[in-house]
Amino acid sequence: MLESDQQYQDGRELWSGVRWLTLVRLVVVTSLMGGSLAVHMLGSNTLLGRSLPALFYVIGSIYAASIGYGFALRFSNRIRTLAYIQFILDLFFITAIIYVSGGIESIFTFFYIFSIFGAAIILGQGWALITASISGILYGILIDFQFYGVIHPLQAHAMMPVQYDAGRTFYIMLANIAAFYMVAFLASYLQGQLSSARMKLRQQRRDFKDLEVLNDRI
After folding, report:
1. How many CB atoms lie within 10 A of CB 87?
2. How far apart are CA 97 and CA 206, in angstroms?
3. What is the pLDDT of residues 179-206, one digit of tens each?
């Protein structure tokens, strides 16, 4: 009975976490869209050429995916699978945002950190490292392709940025990937502390219930 109650509680917490993840994602992309529009209307040269429309296409795709997540969350009971899909797709969306906003010059690399923290809190400590690893792989591939001229990030192409040498490119890529893993280890530690606190709270609740039953019997 206690094991069944714990599984039910775990399921409710996971459902709540995935719901909040969907809402936070919508808030973040709405803020990103609003900020981009404000910068564009003020006449800033931060977003030029095809970069701004491409960014809006990515944001629109995130909105569409979030609507799909909402329906799946309401009508499906495979919440953990839905959480896996969300986090993996989020990393691809983040990589797309970085691509259209300049690649190595993009200011949105820190979005990976949000996803790593979210994975640790919702899916557990192991997924913080998994998310950091996937983030590092996607970011590394993007920067390598940009450096070797396989792809040309839209904003970088429009602004004709200064070419980075191999040493500086490697340093920027390594620094960001190292930051991903540092955040993953920190998030894992915090999640461990949070899980420990939850277990203690559940044990206290069980103890209170046992005392209530004992008091009724007496």
Report:
1. 21
2. 47
3. 999 999 998 888 777 777 667 766 676 7
Q: Print the SS3 string covering 55-101.
A: HHHHHHHHHHHHHHHHHHHHHCCCHHHHHHHHHHHHHHHHHHHHHHC
With b for 16 or more beta-carbon neighbours within 10 A and e for fewer, the 91-102 pattern comes to: bebbbbbbbbbb
Percent composition of the chain: helix, strand, coil (DSSP 3-state, to 5)? 85, 0, 15
The encoded tokens of residue 194 equal 């949070």
Residues 60-71 have pLDDT tens digits of 999 999 888 888
Pick from 139, 146, 145, 144: nearest CA to 181: 139
3: helix, strand or coil? helix
Amino acid, single-letter form, for residue 73: L
Amino acid letter, 79: I
DSSP state of 107: S
Q: Sign of the C-alpha dihedral, residues 146, 151, 156, 157? A: positive
Contacts 24+ apart (CB under 8 A), 23-26: 24/118, 25/62, 25/66, 25/90, 26/63, 26/66
